[in-house]
Here is the input.
Amino acid sequence: MLPRVRETTLPSAGVGFETSRGRLGLWTPADGLVIARLVIHGEAAFAPPIIEAVDSRLARAERVRIFFDAEDLLRYDTELRTALTARFFADRARIESLHVLVGSRLVALGVNVANLALRGLVTSHYARTRYVDALNEALSAAGLSGVTALSFMAA
Here is the structure.
């Protein structure tokens, strides 16, 4: 049985998806930018909204930067990782960067597996400050003055 996913509105024009096991916050603040925050458990059901967000940005921009804040993600469904890896592999030449902030060893292992399949596309961050710096740089490059990484910490 698939978990029930509840959709919510988040600050900074974000969309939230929540189950009894985990949460996803998703933002597309600029044409070439996707930001996701995963908390506790990454459901397989979270793959379609993430893929839809990436597809919508790729329809509007030549290249896209993707950021995953997974610092508070403790575990995930394998189907989430495989669906996202397959989708990103298909357009990896159009993905300018793919940054992942990890906290859990299990999640770090999964990110490393995905990175192998994506031929080194993923930049893993083990310190929030480096992830925030990279996200702030992407926000600035997208022309989003006055918007910082802190705008996307809710999920």
Q: What stands out?
A: Strands lie at 6-10, 14-18, 23-30, 33-42, 64-76, 95-102, 122-125. The longest strand covers residues 64-76.
